[in-house]
Write a structure and sequence with these properties.
Elements: H1 2-14, H2 19-33, E1 39-45, E2 51-58, E3 66-68, H3 72-80, E4 84-86, E5 104-112, E6 115-124, H4 132-146
Helix pairs in contact: 1-2, 1-4
The chain binds methionine sulfoxide.
Methionine sulfoxide binds next to helix 3 and strand 6.
Length: about 150
C-alpha cells in the first residue's frame, strides 16, 4: 500500500497547487487510502514561539490548534526530534485527547535543513496499528513536504 502511495505523494508535490493545497491533498490522500488513518494533519512551529500551530488537516475539527512545546505527544516530538509511536493513547500521561474514538497515534518530525520545524500527526481509531512501515512512509512524506516549504 505505502509503495503505491509514494508516487501519488510525489505527484501532489510536483503539481502546480499552492503549498497549503498540496499539504491538504496529502492529508486527504492518506486518510482516504490508509484504513487505519482517521485524522491526518500537520503542525508547524509558530514563529519564534515555543509552541506548535495546526496547519492543514483532514478529519474531525480539533480545539488543539496551538500546542505548547512539551505538551502532549506533539509537543514532546517538538523537543525530542524523534518519531513517537503510541500504540495505546490511554497508557500515556502526557497526552492531549482530541476525540474519544482515538486509540493510537503516530507523530513524525518534519525537518527543513536539519531543523525540526513541524510534524505530521496521525490519529487512529484502531488500537496498536502502526509498524515500522508507517514510520518509513511518513518520513518520506515529510521529506517531500520539506521541498515545498
Ligand atoms: N493527541 C495530540 C494532540 C493533537 S490531536 O491528536 C489532533 C497530542 O497529544 O499531542
Amino acid at each position: 500500500m505505502f509503495n503505491l502511495l509514494r508516487p501519488q505523494v510525489s505527484s501532489i508535490i510536483d503539481s502546480n497547487k499552492t503549498p497549503d493545497a498540496k499539504m491538504l491533498a496529502i492529508c486527504e490522500l492518506l486518510k482516504a487510502e490508509v484504513p487505519h488513518y482517521d485524522w491526518v494533519g500537520f503542525y508547524f512551529k509558530n514563529g519564534n514561539k515555543r509552541e506548535l500551530k495546526l496547519g492543514q488537516y483532514t478529519g474531525a475539527p480539533t480545539d488543539h490548534t496551538i500546542i505548547p512545546f512539551g505538551k502532549g505527544i506533539c509537543g514532546q516530538v517538538a523537543e525530542s526530534n524523534e518519531n513517537f509511536v503510541v500504540p495505546d493513547v490511554q497508557a500515556q500521561d502526557n497526552y492531549i485527547a482530541c476525540s474519544i474514538t482515538v486509540k493510537s497515534e503516530i507523530v513524525i518530525p518534519l525537518f527543513l535543513n536539519g531543523e525540526n520545524i513541524g510534524q505530521i500527526d496521525i490519529d487512529s481509531n484502531t488500537p496498536d496499528p502502526f509498524t515500522k512501515a508507517d514510520e518509513t512512509f511518513l518520513e518520506f512524506v515529510n521529506f517531500e513536504v520539506a521541498k515545498i516549504l
